[in-house]
Design goal:
- The N and C termini lie far apart (about 95 Å).
- The chain contains 20 helices and 32 strands.
Length: about 725
């Protein structure tokens, strides 16, 4: 059993997420429903409980005989992963309630001690190989009284380390690309606060890469290795290093789960530019820093973690340094249940029946798969270069060539009229279309372009994770490769419509829809990669061009004067002027000297906008005889709730120039929405009042009837 120690607790939790922590505690004590159901769309629950949190360190090459001090352990998001990899773990947190949650989650761990209270009050009989700060350093200013709180905080912690011990620090990058692209500062919810250097804020602070390096060097930790968790250190799927930022596509699209955020530009494309400039590390969203007072060698170059799957499929992949400056690839289970899945991958990788398409050979050692690192381009990388050079036809030719060889090299390819067996539906769901498919049996369905290398005229497959003894349509396997490629490369989407692209491979819209349903079921239900879907928040695109145009419309208006010569108003017979608007005021002048046979005029102050307008003055000889305004407000401004505001004018004298001045205000979209909501609310209230009034009238009528009856009875009795 884990050891519980609250002897340093002073009776007050310094921080909390509120009552949701009580819900979490109850759940970990009595998990009567699935984790997915319990979390629902609650970010707080997901933040504390999702296994993806462990990805920040579940790949790290700890040694089994090492011990770690975890500072700010909270609800134990990564405590379990540490216990699985280390000899002993001491987890410290100020909050008793969070520590209780941590204990309930990991109480069966024999190598865990949970301590509640202020670290400054604690003494330890031993020093540690690691001191781990996962989302903690940024708060040091709040609980460290010093002119240099971060220096003092880390210096105090360093005394707990062995001479060759290391800090492992996970923290946001204040210059992270996402903050330039509409994401709020994580701790305060303010836009651009970190980018602006936290001016006026004394409660939290994150750091740029160079700031962290200086901070660590100042306290004697001059040796460091930076890792770049993506999309950030809280919910990472991948871990990059300086050696692999360019190779492994840092910055690919993500599910946004924190809160609604604006998007000003394509982060993936911008990051490609940053990579070319050699500065992508400076703008990474988060850091994991491994640092020591003594020099050390870091072996891991890249990690990809699939911890969001169902437990039996949770595996990790690491690229690391090997002997003689070479690299190797390791695939490993993230838990005991996934060990069988890793073993099955090894079996699938031994299949050599294909002639020119064959799996990469690997070894199974200590429940881990070891592969040689292929220093070659994937088909995806080749396709990417073709797309960048506008060679889409070459992409299509390359794909056709591969698909033809794929079918030729399989001797068990045949037409199947009914593929929907019980096993098939278990993997891909119940969505069916009435088609006869050319199918393969016992075949790898995950032949996406990232998994295929072209070496010496042969195709080498690096991943045979999903192989099934079922008849699988060849077109579905092709579609998976095509869909992945099309979704990934914006350049391809800009050149070809999806239907056109799929049509090149004889995949019609019915098949496209069916395969999409199968693929989603396979990923979300069978494999289980859906933990964050319920937490997804909108990514709201923002066009600066549109904002500029909207603001310009507020400052510059095209005002039109339509002329009716007896046949009505027309676009062909109008005058228009560009007018500057300052503080809502405008003045426009139309020259009418050469205009004849005028019956009436129509003044359009602006087009395609909802406005309020007040005409203060108009030239003598012209009067306003009406408008299509809805009503006047309390200041006598006319309110136009239409996109084509108009004033109707009548000429009553001689006029050569028409001058109109006044005030005009364009309503923005949010203002219009607020008004509509207000109207709806008022309408609702009025309807409720009508109903209540009707009820009162009914009650009153009933009472009057009863009164009349009683009065009649009284008169009868008194007359007798």
């Amino acid at each position: 059993m884990a050891i519980w120690n609250d002897s340093f607790y002073k009776g007050v939790d310094e921080y909390s997420d509120g009552d949701v922590e009580e819900e979490i505690l109850h759940y970990v004590q009595n998990p009567e429903e699935s984790l997915e159901t319990f979390i629902g769309d609650s970010y707080a629950k997901g933040y504390h409980l999702l296994p993806v949190r462990e990805n920040i360190l579940n790949w790290y090459p700890f040694q089994k005989d090492q011990i770690a001090l975890e500072i700010g352990a909270g609800c134990g998001a990564i405590t379990g992963a540490l216990c699985n990899k280390l000899k002993r773990v001491v987890s410290v947190d100020l909050s008793k309630r969070r520590s209780k949650i941590n204990y309930e989650r990991h109480k069966m761990a024999q190598n865990l001690t949970i301590m509640v209270g202020n670290l400054n009050d604690m003494q330890f009989e031993e020093t540690f190989d690691y001191v781990i700060l996962n989302g903690v350093l940024e708060y040091a200013i709040s609980f460290t009284d010093s002119d240099k709180p971060y220096h003092l905080f880390l210096s105090n912690l360093s005394r707990f380390l062995k001479p060759k011990g290391k800090f492992l620090i996970a923290i946001e990058n204040r210059l992270g690309l996402k903050y330039f692209n509409g994401a709020k500062e994580d701790h305060t919810g303010n836009y651009f606060l970190g980018l602006n250097g936290y001016v006026g804020n004394e409660t939290v602070r994150t750091f740029s890469k160079s700031e962290l390096i200086r901070l660590l060097s100042d306290i004697g930790f001059k040796f460091h290795k930076f890792y770049y968790p993506y999309p950030d250190y809280k919910f990472p799927n991948e871990i990059f290093t300086d050696e692999t930022l360019e190779e492994n596509e840092y910055g690919r699209p993500i599910i946004n789960i924190e809160e609604d955020r604006y998007v000003l530009f394509n982060e993936n494309l911008v990051n490609e530019s940053l990579i070319k400039e050699g500065v992508s590390d400076v703008f990474a969203n988060s850091f994991l820093v491994e640092c020591s007072q003594e020099q050390f060698e870091a072996k891991v170059l890249y990690a990809k973690l699939n911890s969001e799957r169902n437990e039996r499929f949770r595996i990790g992949t690491v690229i690391q340094k090997a002997e003689k400056q070479k690299r190797e690839v390791i695939k490993f289970p993230l838990n005991i249940k996934a060990e069988k899945h890793v073993a099955n991958i090894f079996i699938n990788m031994q299949d050599k029946k294909e002639k020119n398409i064959h799996p990469l050979q690997c070894d199974l050692q200590d429940k881990e798969l070891k592969f040689p690192f292929l220093n070659a381009k994937t088909l995806d990388a080749i396709c990417c270069e073709m797309i960048q050079n506008n060679r889409c036809s070459d992409v299509i030719d390359l794909l056709h060539e591969f698909f033809i060889k794929m079918k030729k090299n399989n001797n068990e390819c045949k037409l199947v009229s009914n593929i929907y067996t019980q096993e098939f539906c278990k993997y891909f769901g119940n969505y069916k279309i009435n088609r006869e498919f050319e199918c393969v049996f016992d075949f790898n369905i995950d032949l996406i372009m990232d998994n295929i290398y072209q070496i010496d005229g042969e195709y080498v497959i690096i991943d045979c994770e999903w192989v099934y003894s079922q008849w699988i349509p060849v077109s579905f396997i092709e579609w998976r490769a095509l869909n992945e490629l099309y979704s990934k490369h914006e350049g391809l989407r800009q050149i070809l419509e999806r239907t056109q692209f799929m049509k090149e491979f004889e995949i019609d819209e019915e098949m496209d829809q069916a395969f999409q349903c199968w693929s989603e079921y396979f990923a979300q239900e069978y494999v289980g990669a859906k933990q964050r879907i319920n937490l997804a928040k909108p990514m709201i695109p923002v066009s600066l061009d549109e904002i500029h145009q909207a603001e310009r419309r507020k400052q510059v208006a095209v005002m039109s004067l339509y002329i009716d010569r007896g046949q009505g108003y027309s676009e062909e017979d109008k005058l228009y002027e560009e007018v500057c608007i300052q503080d809502g005021r405008f003045k426009v002048e139309f020259v009418l000297e050469k205009v004849s046979d005028v019956k009436s005029l129509r003044f359009d102050p602006i087009e395609n906008e909802i406005i309020t307008c007040f005409v203060e003055s108009i030239s003598d000889g012209v009067v306003i005889r009406g408008s299509n305004a809805t009503r006047n407000d309390e200041n006598n401004y006319q309110i136009f709730n239409c996109m084509d505001p108009q004033y109707y004018l009548e000429i009553v004298g001689m006029i050569s120039r028409l001058c109109i001045s006044g005030k005009i205000f364009v309503k923005d979209e949010n203002e219009i929405k607020r008004e509509l909501i207000q109207k709806r609310e008022i309408g609702k209230i009025n309807e409720e009042l009508k109903i209540k009034n009707h009820e009162l009238q009914m009650k009153n009528g009933k009472l009057m009837a009863e009164y009349g009856y009683l009065l009649t009875e009284y008169k009868k009795r008194t007359s007798n």
